[in-house]
């Protein structure tokens, strides 16, 4: 009689692997509170909302509670980050954020600089923040409140976690073409044109300059080209400005600029962009200068806007001057005297706009 035997165990092996990836997209928004004393007394639990901004494909805003968001924080300023588009596909958004009070140089104040853990913004919980962000008395007695104005910055990192098999290829969402062109500029490989700017010499590539600027195209290949010159002399421009412009031409971005130098560099670069018909750089500079408009700068900024056809920047200057209480402070500046001498027509246009 044959003996009974247990069934043979199934043999074989199945291998699989996967990857968990956390994609992070970051952005920041700077909120300036002008006329701080006028916002006090709004009431506990009542807020003023910033303009909306986009980070990670989602819309956000900052909620500023000058009298705190509840009774416990009545002596404090409360700050919250709110996700505006909570109805979009009913999806939750995972993010971390940092809210900082800025000093006069635009740098975060260490004692008022708060970072969150990773939190979820959903339809049920659309806001996260700090109900005791800073004491009102502390702000009012500090140097961070100047001319009844202070600034805060909210830095947001949206985290998108996904799982995928190892064999799937992840294509970066943005091109690295600008990095290659930046390396080309730095390495000087194949450079075929030189520029003398002040006491410095810059080398570049004719074809790149021609593709980006119609003025360079005319200078290097058109009727303006200098056939025998070994290098082209650039007058009325600082070397650092020309270098920053070259960096933008090759990479479509600006180099690192110190916070205290950004407004002046933006003005110089706007002039250079207009000179070489670099329209995108011109718009970038207009946008940057709009963030620096105040009583001490608006007149000189308006002069630049008028001289170089920057309609958006001009409109921003007009809007600031027309705001309550600003006109008197602007007229008292040296910049306004310069504006009257250099652009009398725009002063007439401004006065006609204010006193129709």
From TrEMBL:
Domain called MATH: residue spans: 26-156
Sequence ranges assigned to domain BTB in this UniProt record: 191-258
Recorded superkingdom: Eukaryota
Sequence similarity: Belongs to the Tdpoz family.
Residue spans of biased composition, Polar residues class: 12-21
Family matches, as InterPro entries: BACK_BPM_SPOP, BPM1-6, BTB/POZ_dom, MATH/TRAF_dom, SKP1/BTB/POZ_sf, TRAF-like
Pathway field: Protein modification; protein ubiquitination
Pfam family, one: BTB
Protein name according to UniProt: Uncharacterized protein
Location of region: Disordered: 1-24
């Amino acid at each position: 009689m044959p003996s009974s035997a247990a069934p043979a165990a199934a043999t074989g092996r199945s291998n699989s692997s996967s990857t968990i990836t956390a994609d992070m997209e970051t952005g920041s928004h700077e909120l300036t509170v002008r006329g701080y004393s006028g916002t006090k007394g709004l009431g506990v639990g009542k807020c003023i909302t910033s303009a909306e901004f986009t980070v990670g494909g989602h819309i956000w805003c900052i909620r500023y509670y000058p009298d705190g968001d509840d009774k416990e924080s009545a002596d404090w300023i409360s700050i919250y980050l709110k996700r505006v588009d909570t109805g979009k596909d009913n999806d939750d958004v995972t993010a971390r954020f940092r809210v900082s009070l800025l000093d006069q140089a635009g740098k975060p104040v260490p004692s008022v600089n708060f970072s969150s853990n990773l939190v979820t913004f959903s339809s049920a919980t659309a806001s996260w923040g700090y109900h005791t962000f800073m004491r009102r008395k502390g702000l009012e007695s500090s140097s961070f409140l100047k001319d009844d104005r202070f600034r805060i910055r909210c830095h947001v990192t949206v985290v998108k976690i996904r799982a995928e098999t190892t064999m799937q290829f992840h294509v970066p969402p943005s091109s690295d073409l600008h990095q290659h062109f930046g390396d080309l500029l730095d390495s000087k490989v194949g450079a075929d044109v030189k520029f003398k700017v002040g006491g410095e010499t810059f080398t570049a590539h004719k074809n790149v300059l021609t593709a980006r600027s119609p003025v360079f195209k005319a200078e290097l290949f058109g009727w303006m080209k200098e056939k025998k010159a070994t290098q082209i002399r650039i007058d009325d421009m600082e070397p650092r400005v020309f270098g920053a412009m070259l960096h933008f031409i090759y990479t479509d971005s600006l180099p690192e600029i110190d916070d205290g130098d950004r407004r002046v560099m933006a003005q110089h670069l706007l002039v250079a962009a207009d000179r070489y018909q670099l329209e995108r750089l011109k718009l970038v500079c207009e946008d940057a200068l709009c963030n620096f408009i105040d009583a001490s700068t608006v007149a000189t900024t308006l002069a630049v806007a008028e001289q170089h056809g920057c309609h958006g920047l001009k409109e921003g200057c007009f809007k600031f001057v027309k705001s309550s209480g600003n006109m008197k402070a602007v007229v008292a500046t040296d910049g306004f005297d310069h504006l009257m001498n250099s652009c009398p027509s725009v002063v007439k246009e401004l006065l006609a706009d204010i006193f129709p």
